[in-house]
Amino acid sequence: xxxxxxxxxxxxxxxxxxxxxxxxxxxxxxxxxxxxxxxxxxxxxxxxxxxxxxxxxxxxxxxxxxxxxxxxxxxxxxxxxxxxxxxxxxxxxxxxxxxxxxxxxxxxxxxxxxxxxxxxxxxxxxxxxxxxxxxxxxxxxxxxxxxxxxxxxxxxx
Length: 157
What we know:
Layout: E1 8-13, E2 28-34, H1 37-50, E3 54-58, H2 61-66, E4 72-79, H3 84-97, E5 103-108, H4 112-120, E6 124-128, H5 132-143
């Protein structure tokens, strides 16, 4: 019998056997939909520095919709080159599936349609290339439990 295999780039478990260095909740995962593997590697590196959870990456948002990760999702990052209408649909689906989960969209500078779609979907917009210090700040902010959600928007304060 034929079974559908999702196009999952990698499942990196970055937990350290020494235990968490920060007060991090166990079983958390960061979901990243990206076409550029270097961005996922950078996020994985910071997750390993925080000694927490795992990074689950997908190539397309459709793969995430068909194969949702197990465990508690702490952050969803969309770093794809999809058009604004596809991005809006994906953000609506993600907000419906994980209503209280912070969302982030990574896009190019000057790409107003993507930034507007991110804001409408209640997502944080990060301009590519995302500086390493900004990745570290977002990840540590979300994973150490210090995030605050604006009511109904999902944006980090």
